[in-house]
Design brief:
The complex is a heterodimer of chains A (119) and B (297). Chain A has 2 domains: 63 residues, lambda repressor-like DNA-binding domains (434 Repressor (Amino-terminal Domain), Orthogonal Bundle); 40 residues. Chain A is built from 7 helices and no strands. Chain A is elongated, with a radius of gyration of 16 Å. Chain A starts with a helix and ends with a helix. About 13% of the residues of chain A have low confidence. Chain B has a 5-stranded antiparallel beta sheet with strand order 6-5-9-8-7, with helices on both faces. In chain B, strands 1-3-2-4 form a 4-stranded mixed beta sheet, with helices on one face. Chain B is globular. The two termini of chain B are 24 Å apart. The chains are: A mainly alpha (119), B alpha+beta (297). Chains A and B meet through α4, α6 and α7 of A and β1, β2, β3, α3 and α4 of B.
């Protein structure tokens, strides 16, 4: 994941003509952090990922290397395949699965609202 | 055990988050409010089984924290949310935890992997930042009163407050969480760890029959009522290798959590009984790393 992340962040930054300092300022991070991310010296937090993806207008999943397009297409999300997404899911009861699936659907609706799209 | 440098970095991260969001001036820190301020969706749930206490979920660029309301304790829920915020803020957790989309956590303090321990350390510093709790501890009586003061002021659970208290106090104190007469886990201050002849109480070990905690932890109605009893015992009743030394034993029923919290407070060992193989930093390191000898050795 980190290998893909460092390549993706550099590619997205350069394609927008941003310097590392530009991206750092847009994301509210230190310039050294961008350099460390791009060289693989530092692994990001989710907070870092969210700030970077907002600054670059790409999906967190793109930066993580989980999708190849910069943005999710409409209708592609976690909710329909929630069962496959949970770590150690085999240890969960069916009822807890249902709770997590419901939560994933709620977040997917929020994500679509955030992007101004439909479901 | 979290390496010292990594632990310091995690605690610093928690303080930076507090400072950046205007939470360093006073207690309590409200993690649910903090999550809201950060645009993280909060989703309470009530699972029929105790197999999940909280989770961090990412869907696109939207993040959510789910937390169980099965245990009717605001402090427990606050710690759960703070723990999930730890997964959100700590470097390196995405690649390890959320590669598949979701991370969920179970309640309790036992058998946690590195990432769970790191999230706990973040949560403890976030809810009970050292700079704000130090004056509180200084003005409280040692032992359970200080733990209660922490829990009340920080709106954290008694268990989380007890763990945090043991981390920071100079008093000679240990805390034991037990269920139905058996140990779930034990924490101790550095001073307590230096008492000669003390062995770690291990998970599922029987609480000694002669101490008040044994009787009380078997009385589930008493535990449910959430009562507090102040009694006394002897160090060698708890730890066979310990001295015949008075111990103040405060026992608390933890209500719907079904556990008992015991706070043991005693006098620090005299310094002249130093044995370079069994005391000092090496001795404490062995505790911290779980390398202590078992009782039957």
């Amino acid at each position: 994941m980190i290998e893909k992340f460092k390549d993706r962040i550099r590619k997205a930054r350069e394609s927008r003509g941003f310097t590392q300092l530009d991206l750092a300022q847009k994301a509210g991070l230190q310039a050294a952090a961008i350099s460390h991310f791009e060289t693989g010296q530092r692994a990001p937090s989710f907070d870092n990922l969210r700030k970077l993806s907002d600054a670059l207008n790409v999906s967190v999943d793109y930066l993580l290397g989980r999708i190849d397009e910069e943005q999710h297409g409409q209708g592609i999300g976690a909710a329909p395949r929630a069962k496959q997404l949970f770590r150690h899911a085999e240890n969960l009861s069916e009822q807890s699965f249902d709770i997590l699936e419901s939560m994933a659907k709620t977040l997917w609706e929020r994500e679509n609202q955030r992007k101004g799209g439909g479901t | 055990m979290i390496p010292h440098k990594r632990l310091k970095a995690i605690q610093l991260k928690a303080r930076i988050v507090l400072g950046n969001n205007g939470y360093l001036a006073s207690l309590p820190v409200r993690p649910k409010q903090l999550a809201n301020d950060l645009g993280i969706e909060l989703i309470p749930f009530d699972p029929p089984h105790a197999d999940i206490s909280g989770c961090l979920m990412q869907v696109g660029n939207t993040f959510g924290i789910g937390y169980s309301t099965a245990i009717k304790n605001e402090g427990f829920q606050n710690f759960t949310v703070a723990h999930e915020l730890g997964h959100y803020f700590i470097d390196d957790h995405p690649s390890a935890l959320l590669a598949e989309g979701t991370h969920y956590s179970r309640s309790g303090y036992i058998c946690k992997d590195r990432f769970e321990q790191e999230a706990d350390a973040f949560a403890a510093e976030l809810l009970m930042p050292w700079g704000l709790i130090a004056p509180l501890i200084r003005k409280s009586a040692p032992g359970f009163p200080a733990i209660k003061a922490l829990a009340d002021s920080c709106e954290s659970s008694l268990v989380a407050s007890a763990i945090r208290y043991c981390e920071v106090t100079d008093e000679c104190v240990a805390t034991v969480v037990s269920h139905a007469g058996k140990v779930e886990f034990m924490t101790a201050s550095n001073s307590f760890k230096q008492i000669p002849g003390i062995d770690w109480l291990r998970k599922r070990e029987q609480i000694p029959f002669e101490v008040p905690t044994h009787r009380l932890s078997l009385d589930m109605e008493w535990v449910e009522r959430g009562e507090i009893i102040q009694e006394g015992s002897l160090l060698n009743q708890w730890f066979s290798g310990g001295a015949k030394q008075d111990v103040k034993e405060d026992v608390v029923g933890l209500g719907s959590y079904g556990r008992t919290l015991t706070v043991l407070l005693t006098d620090a060992p005299p310094e002249e009984e130093d044995d370079e193989n069994e005391r000092g930093d090496d001795y404490i390191d062995r505790w911290n790393e779980g390398r202590f000898r078992s009782k039957n050795q």
